Amino acid sequence: MSSINQIEAADKALAAQAATAAAQAAAAAAKAAATAQRAVAAVAPLGPAMLDARQRVALWVPSLVFGILYALFFLGLALTTLNPKAWSDVKAAVLGRKRRLRRPSADDECGAAEGCGGRAKTAALANGGAGHAAANGASGGEVRLTQIHRPVVLTWEGLGCAYNSPAGLVPVLQDVCGEARPGEMVALMGPSGSGKSTLLDMLAARKTLGRLTGSVLVNGKPRGPGFRHISSYVPQDDNLTPQMNVVETCQLYSALTLPAGTSPAAAAARMDEVLAAMGMGHARDRLVGGVLPGGLLLRGLSGGERKRLWVAVGILATPSVVFLDEPTTGLDSAAAVAVVNLLHRTVVDSGLTIISSIHQPCSAVWAAYDEVSLLARGRLLYFGPCAEMGSWFEGGLGLGPWNPAKHGILSDWALDLVSIEFTKPEGMGRSIEGPEELRAAARAFSRHYRAKRLAAPPAAAANGARKGKAAAPNGRARAGGDASDGAAPHDADSDGSAGSGRAVRSAAGGGDPELGGGRGWDEISKAAKYEAGGGEDEETDWAAAQPAPDWTAGIKEGADESDSLQRASWMTQFRTLVWRELLSMMRNPVDVAGRMLCFVLLACFMGLVFWNLDLGADGTRNRVNALFLHTMFLLLMPFVYLSMYANDRRVCVADFSARLYSVSAYYAAKQAAVLPFVSANVIISNLVVIGMVGLNTQPSAVFVLCAVSIVFYLLAQQVQSFASIVTPNQEAAFILTIAYTSINLLMSNFIMRFRDMAQHWVSGLRWLSAANYAFSALLANQFRGTAVSCRQGLNPELVGFLESLMPNARLLRTSAVQSMLLRPGDDCVLNLNAVLDYFGTTRPLWVYSLALVCYLLGVHALTFWGLLRLARKERR
Ligand SMILES: Nc1ncnc2c1ncn2[C@@H]1O[C@H](COP(=O)(O)OP(=O)(O)OP(=O)(O)O)[C@@H](O)[C@H]1O
């Protein structure tokens, strides 16, 4: 009995517990219902924020049409600028006018093919005369350059350069001396690897790598930092913008290189003058041409014209000294002669000093030079008048003899003489055969040169320029010189065949005591062999034996009047560079027009794929997909233009190296020029997507979508630019950006949610993922605080999918559950905040937006740092 009572008591207790549990469950259900009610009350239905189908058409159709017209406009602009003749033909055809065929002029023909350098020069001189006459008061079509602001005598003494290597210091230039005077063209010549470029860079104050010794004097004073304002360096490879024409190119360089405060009229006059002097007066409106960033080939100037334009912009800023790195390389002989003759003419007219490296010149090119510095294995074998080089080798060293019929022009023979790497040509006669003899010849010349210098000190001022220089028709007749010749080594025949008479003597007697310091070649080379045998290892001991470098000291302490000349201000640089960027972009059909077309067509494609999404559960899911794809599209789009960033790098490195403008001016100009076009592309494509897909059209939501998209696109683009700058080439930049893009994709929180990652620590990379911030911002913008009606229930197809997915879930097939899923009732509401909860997008929208902006600023800072580093690293 008692046990029955116990059982009843236990039943009662269980019943009481069950009742309590039921009451708690009911309370919890009531609480959940209340929470849901509050949540529903807190969200605004999305429905009213959506436009109806007609209104959406009115949004995307005009945007799409505008985008296409915009692209066509810039395409037309680019094509008409790049091909004006085709444009005039189109205009004539459209207007029904009779096409006027223009008979090609001699200038056009000349421009189309190189090889008419002389004719181009004559035509240009006549053509440019008018412009110049206005500026210069010259008459009769004669082009004379305005006197440069300050004639300069450049003297260098004991120049040396050595590089560190695992084996110790390796000298590549040793004890090189020389002098260049106003109105002179000096050639730096020698076999490959002899040190021409090293010497040119040292003279131009561009050399910073290696252990540098010796001194460079400007009019007798140590060269100061202002030297760069009175000198110009013209690299071998030009850095011209293909989309600009000749005049625009000159305007660009005159704005950047002429002293601040130069009036526009004076700048224009100078431009006319230089163009005419360089024989480019006929091609003022011609495009430079070349391969555009993006790959299009643009027809433009011929190789010779391009080189002349490159030289013209180098001398625009009225420099006193111009350094040219192999100005004739890559040109056929006629074009090379045209360039060098024009240079010579400029030198004679203006008192300019030109120092240029040359390879094996042809006779006409050789004839244009006044002085030559002959190097071999970093040693100076000769410096002095070109015409006297033969007499030094023949008379001074007893080499040769030079037979023009057999050996070619003097420069060819001299190059063969000092080249010890290759077998000498047949019939060379006595020659320099090995390193010891080369060293001995260099020492003999050094002694001879210094003795001459002691006898006649170098010209220390501008008026030390050779007398009668400007009057000399080709510079050759001055070889004899006079007392004012300073360092001229010795007498010479004035017809350029100096030394031919001496050859007989030297061949017979072994050297002219006057020239060779009394030692014949046999004696010199014997001594050299003895010294070499006696253990004098100059190749390794030389650098250690040199005095402490005085190069930088000279630069720092030196002061000359050129310090006062200031180039363009930061603002002028900025304006000029913005102008260049705009011209380059607008005239490149694959740039402005191509980008807009790409944006609108892809937006249109995406709109068709996600066409007119409904406001139910399915539509919500697809909206999330569309937002993710939109994010990815913005991330991937800049890849199309990676080659352009690589081109930007090349251009700015060359310009930094020439110190044309500051890094900050370039950077600011680039951003300012790009921003409007990027904004236009993103806004137009966003409007197309919003309209076609059916995204939130509240003005604030549209604004945020556009703003976030612009910032994110700029960021993706900036990463590409950063990669192009910090990596050595396009392939490396590609690898870096692919790695970055992969992180963005995997850490977007869409393909795999962070909370679902089994290796959760990997999700730490999310902080690097800009796509994560952008996607979160777009989700929050689209769904936060919104709700959609679900009275139509779930898609029957989806319910069927659930049933086949869970075949044992009988509950799913009960009428109550089916009714709840398919016909949930008129008051059913989908709270879209749940979407944000699902993705863990819990922070306010401004947090994601701010993170994106800070990210962008960070990448800008890194890119700017990379550019600064690049500008400093561009050392030679
Ligand atoms: N940064 C460097 N480090 C080590 N060696 C260098 C460096 N730059 C140049 N050299 C060496 O210095 C020597 C002279 O080079 P340079 O470029 O001045 O000769 P070059 O006469 O102009 O040759 P080329 O006519 O072929 O252009 C070469 O042997 C070259 O290998």
TrEMBL record:
Q: Which UniProt keywords apply?
A: ATP-binding, Membrane, Nucleotide-binding, Transmembrane, Transmembrane helix, Transport
Positions of transmembrane segments: 57-79, 592-613, 625-644, 675-695, 702-720, 732-752, 764-783, 845-868
- Could you tell me which SMART domains the record lists for this protein? AAA
Where is this protein found? Membrane
ATP-binding listed as a keyword:
yes
Residue intervals of the ABC transporter domain: 143-402
Which GO molecular function terms does the record list? ABC-type transporter activity; ATP binding; ATP hydrolysis activity
For bias kind Low complexity, which ranges apply? Answer: 456-487, 494-507
Output the Pfam families linked to this UniProt entry: ABC2_membrane, ABC_tran
Q: Which SUPFAM superfamilies match?
A: P-loop containing nucleoside triphosphate hydrolases (SSF52540)
List where Gly residues composition bias occurs: 508-519
| Alphabetical list of InterPro entries matching this protein | AAA+_ATPase, ABC2_TM, ABC_transporter-like_ATP-bd, ABC_transporter-like_CS, ABCG_transporters, P-loop_NTPase
What this protein is called in its record is: ABC transporter domain-containing protein
GO cellular component terms, semicolon-separated = membrane
Q: Where is this region: Disordered?
A: 456-556
Question: How is it placed in the membrane, per its record?
Answer: Multi-pass membrane protein
Composition skew (Basic and acidic residues), residue ranges: 520-529
